[in-house]
Amino acid sequence: MSECRVLLVDDEDAYVETLAKRLTRRGLTVHTADRGEKALAILAEHPVDVVILDVKMPGMDGIETLTRIKKNHADVEVIMLTGHANVDAAIRGMERGAFDYLMKPAEMDDLFYKIQDAQKKRVLAGHGGA
């Protein structure tokens, strides 16, 4: 798999920090954002292949953020992260173009393989990474 650029979007700082370190160790380039608005700003400045997006965040929630990502960066794949109470929101996200969703806290191997699958979809669609 070519280098994969990932954007983690979640308002839980400790979770994002840990996840970013673990994904970086697996060879991914990782950007982070703690809210939807910041994620959109990062996407405008940095090419990204896959966004890992929490459904529930203050301000712009994950569904609104997903809608804006897909409007402005249609080739970016988005994996939704959700707690048990928000599975319906993750399913709505799939209906709006998300690649897939995982329950929080996601197992590292499951998340990594899901990122790889999303990256392969981009490559097959002609939008490959670096």
Question: How would you sum up this structure in a few lines?
Answer:
With 130 residues, this protein is an alpha/beta fold.
| Tally of individual helices | 5
Order of helices and strands: EHEHEHEHEH
Mean pLDDT: 91
Structural Rg: 13 Å
What is the third-level CATH name, the topology? Rossmann fold
Largest sheet: 5 strands, parallel
Please supply descriptive tags for the structure shown above:
130 residues; alpha/beta; Rossmann fold; 5-stranded parallel sheet; 46% helix
List the helices and strands and how they pair.
Blueprint lengths: L4 E5 L3 H13 L3 E5 L2 H10 L4 E5 L7 H11 L4 E6 L4 H9 L4 E4 L4 H17 L6
Parallel strand pairs: 1-2, 1-3, 3-4, 4-5
Helix pairs in contact: 2-3, 3-4
Overview of this protein structure:
- The protein has about 130 residues and is of the alpha/beta class.
- The protein is built from 5 helices and 5 strands.
- A 5-stranded parallel sheet has the order 2-1-3-4-5, with helices on both faces.
- The protein is globular and about 35 Å long.
